[in-house]
Amino acid sequence: MNRKIMAALFVAAIACVTSAQPAKLNLSGTWERLSVSGYGNPGTETMTFVHNEPYLYLLYRIKDGAGERTLDLKGMIDGKPHKQEIDEQPAILIAQWEGKNFILDIKRERPTGYVHNRRKITFSNDGKVMTVERTQHSKEGTLLGTGAEKWERK
After folding, report:
1. Would you say residue 73 lies in a domain?
2. Which one, 98, 102, 146, 148, has least CB within 10 Å?
3. Cα–Cα distance for residue pair 139/7, rounded to 1 Å
4. pTM for the structure as a whole
């Protein structure tokens, strides 16, 4: 084959691959947890995202037996740790895409001890439901528990 035909085929192949890759879902909006099984917080949880890829702002509200608290987090969806403070305690947000899954790690110190929750999030085709595999880890990285959650965009 001559070079012009090879170049045209290469450009066409790249265009097909590029157009076949799914666009990343915009997470913006308020998500309410509908259910939890296995390990997890039995209270109510709501996450409000402001998402402008790769930037992410998360307002995470929790209400349970320990009271009410709000985590105010920001960072980039780049798989890197983004240090910040929650209630004057150190915290880290790590967010990244792994294919179609969204990985959300929140690590933080609390007066009652260290918390590290990791969520592997899968979205429904219409983008209105999140199915979550949640794990909690110790500061040393030991797995403390696993659970499943279902969230709905409001």
Report:
1. yes
2. 98
3. 52
4. 0.82
144: Cα within 13 Å, side-chain hemisphere: 12
C-beta atoms surrounding 5 within 10 Å = 9
Q: Where are the alpha helices (DSSP H) in the chain?
A: 3-20
What lies within 8 Å, CB to CB, of 91 at 6+ separation is: 71, 73, 83, 84, 85, 106, 107, 108, 109
Looking at residue 95, which CATH number applies to its domain?
2.40.128.20
Give the mean pLDDT per block of 10 residues along the chain (154 residues).
48 43 82 87 92 97 91 97 95 97 96 93 95 95 95 96
- For the chain, the domain total comes to 1
